Amino acid sequence: MTLLRLRDVEVNYGAVRALRGISLSVEPGTVVALLGANGAGKSTIQKAISGLLKPTVGDIEFDGHRLNSLSPREIIRLGIATVPEGRKIFKDLSVSENLRMGAYSRSDRAGIAQDQEMVLDLFPVLKERTKQLGGSLSGGEQQMLTIARGLMARPRMLLLDEPSLGLAPLIIADIFRILKKINADKGMTLLIIEQNVHVALQNADYAYVLQLGRVTVEGTAKELQENREVIASYMGTQAHAAAG
Ligand SMILES: Nc1ncnc2c1ncn2[C@@H]1O[C@H](COP(=O)(O)OP(=O)(O)O)[C@@H](O)[C@H]1O
Ligand SMILES: [Mg+2]
């Protein structure tokens, strides 16, 4: 059964229609990329799935539940953890405390402790820094902490908004290697919003290209990789550079 499905979703900011009928689906256990230039509507989709913005038209369904009228907290409980744009960690809390915040919707103490061990094994750089304040971490380490924190909710799907933004290529490669491992080892479903076409298509099974609030291209990552020039033209010059 399809895990996440958006059907003809429209979202407005006042008089501005940011999403103009978005339909997409994410199958369980897959990695799906959502590509688009700045302003295409990517974060608006993330916020609609997370329950921070409500569609005026259309449906969002996850695991058979309609999300439209649910609160962000209820959506987390259903199994969607969001890793928002811009590495929004708690700067004045330690790495461990940040991880505990990710488990706030849970009450199984033993399971939480076990998952903290598990995420620290996935991200060894964090394991060496559990007592360090979040604000003292490098950009790459902060991005890893936001992903690790998301995993602490024990989600069925991770929704990541531009995890590569502003990071050096080697750090980006490391983060995507770990994301692929989480997908392969745990069967975790990933919906990854990206402007880095090259990295996203290398790691995804399926991809959607978003332009001005509409899906203009979709296909397997392999198909889209063979049409990189078309994708780049939809993404603008910045994506051209990123597509290398
Ligand atoms: N809070 C807001 N109020 C009004 N317009 C917004 C707001 N947030 C985003 N927008 C507009 O909606 C469109 C999509 O934005 P966004 O989803 O953030 O794009 P992306 O994440 O793809 O860069 C843009 O035109 C943006 O200017
Ligand atoms: Mg965005």
What's this, in brief?
The chain has eleven helices and ten strands. With 244 residues, the protein is an alpha/beta fold.
How are the strands of the largest sheet arranged? 6-7-8-3-9-10
Radius of gyration: 17 Å
End-to-end separation: 36 Å
The major pleated sheet works out as: 6 strands, mixed
Shape: globular
Structural class: alpha/beta
Low-confidence stretches: 237-244
Number of helices: 11
Strand content: 25-35%
The CATH class of the largest domain turns out to be: Alpha Beta
Number of strands: 10
- What is the name of the CATH architecture of the largest domain? 3-Layer(aba) Sandwich
Overall mean pLDDT stands at 94
Secondary structure topology:
Blueprint: E1 4-13, E2 16-26, E3 31-36, H1 42-50, E4 57-62, E5 65-66, H2 72-78, E6 80-83, H3 95-102, H4 109-122, H5 124-127, H6 139-151, E7 157-161, H7 169-186, E8 189-194, H8 197-203, E9 206-211, E10 214-220, H9 221-226, H10 228-235, H11 237-243
Parallel strand pairs: 3-8, 3-9, 6-7, 7-8
Antiparallel strand pairs: 1-2, 1-4, 4-5, 9-10
Helix pairs in contact: 3-6, 10-11
Bound molecules: adenosine-5'-diphosphate and magnesium ion.
Description:
Mean pLDDT is 94; it is low at 237-244. Helix 3 runs parallel beside helix 6. This protein has two domains: 30-54 and 69-79 and 155-244, Rossmann fold (3-Layer(aba) Sandwich), CATH 3.40.50.300; 87-153, no CATH class. A six-stranded mixed beta sheet has the order 6-7-8-3-9-10, sandwiched between helices. The protein has a four-stranded antiparallel beta sheet with strand order 2-1-4-5, with helices on one face. A hairpin with a 2-residue loop joins strand 4 and strand 5 (65-66). The protein has 244 residues and is an alpha/beta fold. It has eleven helices and ten strands. The structure holds adenosine-5'-diphosphate and magnesium ion. The site of magnesium ion has 4 residues, from helix 1.
